[in-house]
Amino acid sequence: MNYFITGLPRSRTSWLANLLTYGRSFCLHDAVGPGTAALEVVNRLTALALETGCDCVGDSDSGLPFLADELNRLLPSARWVFVHRDAAAAEASFINYFAGRAYRGGSVIRAEAVPMAFDRAQSALAEALRLIPASRRLDVPYEGLENRVWVRAIWEWCVPNEPFNGARWEQLHTMQVNPIPEKIRSQRTEDGRRRTSSFASYGGQGHEGVLAG
Hints:
About 40% of the residues lie in helices and about 20% in strands.
């Protein structure tokens, strides 16, 4: 099964990718880069499922709305999660975190360019919400990511065959977690099987967490 998690930038998509990379699930973060086609994303998910043996693979990514129409056509049974964050708060957070820094390996972000970019992101998100039917969509308030009930609902929506791991939720809830992008990822499941994934080959990012700053 495939799933997608999206929202405006700074809607904790990396945190959710960390949470859901566990057991039978593997979640990319920011698989959509400049010029990425929907078919490339689908191919990455297919390759990831074959390499890891996971039942559920997905992408948690604020760039997904720009590809929603094509992704919906290519993967008509995929489940979606939309995280709804106040646009002004998300924009302010983005400026605070990214202004003066390269974003997704691209050019350096200029603060004065962010409002126009967020206008485009909001338009794409609204169109994605129109395209994805309610039967395949879970709408979550941004504040709900601090709530165990909401997070469990996301888990069970995206990874229905893997029991909710309350201990993992508690661990990630109490610390700031950032993804490690450039290394070959390795993860042990509880039964001791070793899974490895070279995310460099996907152009994606790994999700073993580290404490921020």
